[in-house]
Amino acid sequence: MDMEDGITKRKGNALQVKNNKIILLFFLFLGMVFPSLFTYVFYFFPTFDRPIFFIVAKLIQFSMPLFFVVYLLRKRIQIHRPVRSDVVQGGAIGILLFCLVLVVFLIWLQPLEIVTYLQSSARERIQALGLNTFGQYIIFAVFYSTVHALLEEYYWRWFIFRQWQHYVSLVWAVVLSSIGFMGHHVFVLGTLLGFDTYLTYLFSICVALGGVLWSWMYYRSDSLYGAWISHVFVDAALFSIGYIVLF
Q1: If 0-12 CB within 10 Å is exposed, 13-18 middle and 19+ buried, where does residue 211 land?
Q2: For the segment 82-123, what is each residue's pLDDT rounded down to a tens digit?
Q3: Is there a smaller number of Cβ atoms within 10 Å at the N or the C end of the chain?
């Protein structure tokens, strides 16, 4: 009787572990696709207050890692101080990417006719977000390039990439997190440049490669600071292009 109870208990524990793993993988997959889903709805179903929807969707997105790690995994979150080498590396890579993005735009894209389309779609974009003045644009650009860049690194590298490492190899964790990171950018770029141009998909691949780079930086240092700093420079370059196009 005792032996049967022991076998039953072990089977129950094994089933519980299996069920927990299924739940965690489902939630992790949901975390990968949620940004793409809400971005799609934001751009293609404009039947609601877009700024409010954007804020609520972002709050849900950036709350998911906390729910996953703190509630489901029962782990504590630890914040470490930045290491100088990470800051220097992030700054150096960020400056290089900043220059590269601006050079590509000024030398290659600006002379193209697609910039006229970009100007119109970008103006529609900032109006949808309620950014109707130059000052509002600058405030949003600074917030997005700093705070939002940090939140994206926390979401895609600390959460998605790091958690995938528990279930798949390092290479697949990089690939899956980078594809997820690219996903919602396809819709962002498509609405800016058009879905019928190769540029949308070329730059989407560049976003995925950025995800690979930042995943490598995070894996190498076990810190978000380097990836975040370089991400700040990339976003700053993009908002600088927005300024050139819009103002």
Answers
A1: buried
A2: 899 999 999 999 999 999 999 999 999 999 989 999 999 999
A3: N
Burial of 217 (0-12, 13-18, 19+ CB in 10 A): buried
User: Rounded CA gap, 237 and 146, in Å?
Assistant: 12
pLDDT in tens, 199-238: 999 999 999 999 999 999 999 999 999 999 999 999 999 9
pTM of the model: 0.89
Please state, in angstroms and rounded to a whole number, the distance separating the CA atoms of residues 57 and 66. 15
Let me know: does 223 contact 75? Beta carbons within 8 Å. Answer: no
Helix/strand/coil (H/E/C) assignment for every residue in 95-151: HHHHHHHHHHHHHHHCCCCHHHHHHHHHHHHHHHCCCCCHHHHHHHHHHHHHHHHHH
Q: Cβ contacts of residue 59 below 8 Å, gap of 6+?
A: none
**CA nearest to 210, candidates 233, 240, 243:** 233
